[in-house]
Amino acid sequence: MERSPDKTRLYEAFAASGKALSNASRLELLDLLAQGERTVDALAKGAGLNVTTASAHLQTLKAAGFVATRRDGVRIFYRLAGEDVAQLFALFRKVAERHQAEVPAARDAYLLGDGHPVDALDRAELAARSASGAVVVLDVRPREEHAAGHIPGSVSIPIDELADRIDELPTDREVVVYCRGEYCSFAYDAVRLLSSAGRRAIRLSDGMLEWRLADQPVAFGDQ
């Protein structure tokens, strides 16, 4: 059977989207944008890239339809083009973890290092403990990410400030830590730091990306 040119064109269009995801830096940029819109400068800093490289990657993602922009004066802000992009990004990572042998080992090396597993609880258990007043919820993402959307009632202390601000957390409640998502190292680092200081701490099993996708309530700004 002769191959249809129209079918070929269709699958080439699909492949163009797939190609945009075939770069580690672009995936990291999507991870940052899942927390809220940002400028090129902020994205470059967050991903450890120079501005020129970050801009080129963002243009590739924009051409594939994964990100959109808005202008505010001389600044251009990037954001995910839709919630379906966040869903795709989250699913993409889970499929890779389930079916690519290298991913679990790389995940553990990044999140655990040479340390022991860090205990976690899920959203249902967090809701139960929060309802009883037994925990304080701690957001250790950068301050601008907390402002762009966070778990209602959570306390914002960025991970790089936590060592100097532990005394701001109550001593009579367990601390439940969360960060960007399931593969974010900030929560692991925070639990280890708090535990070493004698505090009771546990991490949320996922993070803000999964929280949003599950249609959980989100607060903004300093709420």
Automatic annotation (TrEMBL):
Q: Which organism is it from?
A: Mycobacterium adipatum
Residues annotated as domain HTH arsR-type: 6-100
Q: Which PROSITE patterns would you find in this protein's record? A: HTH_ARSR_2 (PS50987), RHODANESE_3 (PS50206)
Q: What is this protein identified as?
A: ArsR family transcriptional regulator
NCBIfam families, sorted:
HTH_metalloreg (NF033788)
| UniProt lineage | Bacteria, Bacillati, Actinomycetota, Actinomycetes, Mycobacteriales
- Entries under Pfam families matching the protein: HTH_5, Rhodanese
Keywords on record: DNA-binding, Transcription, Transcription regulation
All copies of the Rhodanese domain together span: 131-220
